[in-house]
């Protein structure tokens, strides 16, 4: 009788990343993080993807042309570019949870300031003739138009700088949790999943802004973005995985962490140039579609 445990019998090697009694592939990621975490991290990205097009749509509703709305959207985008590395450095120094909670409050305040600063100016009386300075109603009252001033520019810049950076932070959690010698493929799978969620957020967010603004009014998308921040970001911040995003200055044993590798700024600048080109395309398309909508 053939013995299955015969040492002379060829055995099929186990997959490199396989572990006994542990699910593999995406099921392993779900089991490790939990479905509530995946949902919270996905929803918490929408406020960022809704910001620029939401600001553009809101300001365009009260502006005489699309110069001011386009400028406001651009300023908000610049704010995101400036604030993201600052928020990343702050997370390394003080931990993600503290930074996320502060940015949540700051972002809600920034959106409120944007809603106030982007509202049309006080109406003034007119002879009932429509001019380029505003919109004349049938009663002869001209609605004030939104113009780019310091409060509006500051609110847009501040909103971009403080919007919670969920995508990079959730990647940090995966990388720090999957540190085993056989976790390489799991890290690749997790990062691929996060890239997919990022792309979905940047498709769903602007589309939701357009649909909601058309159905309920231009300010409502920014209000919904504030509500999403208040609900989803704290859920993400207080998730148990936040322990993997402790301050970088100390490791789990309380000793000093290893120094990071030196940044190769030449490669960084190549990436920045590519992202600027892509951002120019997307920004131009968003503004152009809004103009002809």
Global geometry: globular
* DSSP helical segment count: 10
Strand order of the largest sheet: 1-3-2
Question: Largest beta sheet, briefly?
Answer: 3 strands, antiparallel
SSE succession: HHHHHEEEHHHHH
Distance between the termini: 78 Å
Kindly state the number of beta strands.
Answer: 3
Class per helix and strand makeup? mainly alpha
Radius of gyration: 24 Å
Poorly predicted runs are 12-18, 124-143, 250-256
Average predicted confidence as pLDDT: 82
Share of residues in strands: under 5%
Helix percentage range = 55-70%
Outline the structure in words.
By secondary structure, this protein is mainly alpha-helical. Helices cover 63% and strands 2% of the residues. The protein is built from ten helices and three strands; from the N terminus they run H-H-H-H-H-E-E-E-H-H-H-H-H. The protein has a three-stranded antiparallel sheet, with no helix packed on it. Strand 2 and strand 3 (141-143) form a beta hairpin. Helix 5 (96-117) runs antiparallel to helix 9. It is globular.
């Amino acid at each position: 009788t053939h013995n299955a445990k015969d040492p002379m019998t060829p055995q099929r090697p186990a997959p490199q990343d396989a572990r006994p009694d542990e699910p593999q592939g995406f099921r392993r990621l779900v089991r490790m993080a939990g479905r509530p975490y995946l949902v919270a991290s996905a929803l918490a990205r929408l406020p960022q993807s809704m910001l620029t097009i939401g600001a553009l749509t809101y300001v365009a509703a009260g502006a005489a042309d699309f110069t001011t709305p386009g400028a406001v959207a651009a300023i908000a985008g610049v704010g995101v570019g400036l604030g993201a590395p600052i928020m990343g450095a702050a997370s390394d120094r003080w931990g993600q949870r503290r930074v996320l909670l502060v940015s949540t409050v700051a972002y809600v305040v920034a959106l409120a300031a944007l809603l106030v600063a982007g509202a049309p100016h006080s109406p003034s009386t007119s002879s009932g003739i429509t001019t380029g300075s505003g919109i004349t109603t049938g009663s002869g009252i001209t609605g004030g138009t939104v113009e780019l001033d310091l409060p509006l520019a500051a609110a847009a810049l501040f909103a971009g700088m403080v919007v919670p950076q969920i995508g990079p932070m959730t990647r940090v959690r995966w990388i720090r949790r999957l540190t085993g010698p056989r976790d390489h493929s799991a890290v690749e799978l997790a990062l691929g999943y996060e890239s997919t969620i990022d792309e979905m957020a940047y498709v769903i967010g602007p589309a939701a802004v357009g649909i909601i603004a058309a159905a309920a009014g231009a300010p409502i998308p920014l209000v919904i973005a504030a509500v999403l921040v208040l609900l989803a970001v704290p859920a993400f911040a207080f998730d148990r995985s936040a322990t993997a995003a402790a301050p970088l200055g100390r490791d789990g044993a309380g000793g000093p962490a290893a120094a990071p590798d030196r940044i190769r700024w030449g490669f960084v600048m190549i990436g920045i140039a590519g992202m600027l080109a892509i951002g120019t395309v997307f920004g131009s398309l968003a503004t152009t579609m809004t103009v002809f909508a």
